[in-house]
Amino acid sequence: MHLPFIAAADLDRLMDHASLMDALEEAHRRPMPGMDRVLMERPDGAGAPPDRFLILPAWQPGDGLGVKLVTVFPRNPAGDGGGLPAIQALYLLFDDATGAPSLMIDGEGLTFWKTSCDSGLAARFLAPKDAGTLLMVGAGALAPWLVRGHLAARPSIGRVLVWNRSQGKADALAASLADGGVAAETVTDLDGAVAEADVISCATAAATPLVKGDLLRPNAHLDLVGGFAPEMREADDAAVRRCRVFVDSRKGAVGVSGDIVQPMRSGALTEDGIAGDLFDLAQGRVKAEGRTGPTFFKNAGGAHLDLMTALYVRERLWSA
Asked: How far is CA 54 from the centre of its chain?
């Protein structure tokens, strides 16, 4: 069997952030696809982060079904992996009518598009309409995608601040963004930058909170993308208490993501305290207009979003 393979460069040719956000918003007006999540781990005896294998299936009856396979091997770049990326992935899309495999997609590229547009769609609903300053916390491979997603969601943003534990990576990201016409600069004072930003996007592997909720501007929007495991976390309990809390899906975030799991354990958040998810926002069950106070969005990135994005890729291929 020979399956068409869609490489990352093909995805970049087929899509743009605004159009994919439109497609995701439309998909969220429909019932949520069935989805699941399997996480397997191989602990490292020396106390380093474990190797992880993620299996993310989803099924939208009438449209299609698919699965993303992800490996997270932290030692790859500098260790036995010979310089391979720490995260590698593949997506398989199947025909809904026959169950036959129909499309194979570069999983890393799909994840970049899906994740940045997940956060961008939330910003469309929740970020200040006149947002002027974006703070990007983290300078890994996903960071430039998140910046582009937020710029597409809020074109009013005219300034991007970049903070990273490693100053060299922050400088490199800011320079790359500037080369692309984005007014970007690095910052070393994270607390000061948090207090200044209208939109804060975090994509880190932090195990202890980086963003202090007491420092958020009164109308700020906080977008948390890291923290995909319960022991990981990017914002503190004060952020949960101060903000109106949203998730991309309740099933994908509750009991899974550290930025939701840990404040629930501490009592700072209850499940009823989650104001809504993207399905609630897209279907009008929860209104974001006229809100007061900052907002908190957990981008848990469930398998349903990968499927929605893969189905849009298939649609774009058919119409090309």
From this structure: 16
